[in-house]
């Protein structure tokens, strides 16, 4: 940037003091400082924009390489499918390019299904899968025990003060 030493800065300060005057010098210094700050922010914004554009170019190149690799894989899969069709063309009298069909009628005629019958998963009587832990219920304010409505009212009814009659309430 600028190569200013202490002697050059002192000379500029003396000239500014003589030309501008001591009354206006602080206001001018603030204005110059604000302008220098704006200039630095502008330069930083330009640098950031250049870095973003470079990153964008890098991402575009990376995208192109990934798309090229995907095209190569797709063409490889296409050639594999063609080879598979050619290899399975002679099976069970199917024609080339046709998907071979499997005849399940023999399995149905013997009483067997193609899929295994549904069996319920075995339950473990020691493991409750749907229960919520008591600590979680206590933390979230859920009921941990079943209680009748009358028992719940009796539980939350305010207790009378000791020594007070049951008819009179303190004010």
UniProtKB/TrEMBL annotation:
GO CC annotations on file? TAT protein transport complex
Q: Which GO terms describe its molecular function?
A: protein transmembrane transporter activity
What is the superkingdom listed in this entry's lineage? Answer: Bacteria
| Topological category with respect to the lipid bilayer | Single-pass membrane protein
**Where does this polypeptide localize?**
Cell membrane; Membrane
Gene3D superfamilies xref list: 1.20.5.3310
Extract one GO BP annotation from the record: protein transport by the Tat complex
Coarse class of the protein's main subcellular location:
membrane
What residue spans carry the region label Disordered? 146-171
HAMAP family per the record? TatB
Give the protein's function.
Part of the twin-arginine translocation (Tat) system that transports large folded proteins containing a characteristic twin-arginine motif in their signal peptide across membranes. Together with TatC, TatB is part of a receptor directly interacting with Tat signal peptides. TatB may form an oligomeric binding site that transiently accommodates folded Tat precursor proteins before their translocation.
Q: Which family does it belong to?
A: Belongs to the TatB family.
- Do you know which PANTHER family this protein is assigned to? SEC-INDEPENDENT PROTEIN TRANSLOCASE PROTEIN TATA, CHLOROPLASTIC
- Describe the subunit structure: The Tat system comprises two distinct complexes: a TatABC complex, containing multiple copies of TatA, TatB and TatC subunits, and a separate TatA complex, containing only TatA subunits. Substrates initially bind to the TatABC complex, which probably triggers association of the separate TatA complex to form the active translocon.
What this protein is called in its record is: Sec-independent protein translocase protein TatB
Organism expressing this protein natively: Serpentinimonas raichei
């Amino acid at each position: 940037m600028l190569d200013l030493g202490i002697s050059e800065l002192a000379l500029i300060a003396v000239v500014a003091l003589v030309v501008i005057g001591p009354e206006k010098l602080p206001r001018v210094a603030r204005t110059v400082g604000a302008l220098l700050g704006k200039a630095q922010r502008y330069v930083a914004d330009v640098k950031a924009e250049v870095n973003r554009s470079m990153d964008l170019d890098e991402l575009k190149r990376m995208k192109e390489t990934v798309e090229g690799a995907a095209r190569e894989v797709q063409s490889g899969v296409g050639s594999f499918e063609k080879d598979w069709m050619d290899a399975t063309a002679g099976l069970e009298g199917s024609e080339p390019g046709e998907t071979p069909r499997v005849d399940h009628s023999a399995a149905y005629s013997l009483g067997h299904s193609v899929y295994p019958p549904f069996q319920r998963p075995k339950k473990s009587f020691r493991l409750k899968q749907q229960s919520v832990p008591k600590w979680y219920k206590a933390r979230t304010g859920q009921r941990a025990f079943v209680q009748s409505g009358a028992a719940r009212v009796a539980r939350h009814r305010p207790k009378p003060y000791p020594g007070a009659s049951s008819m009179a309430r303190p004010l």
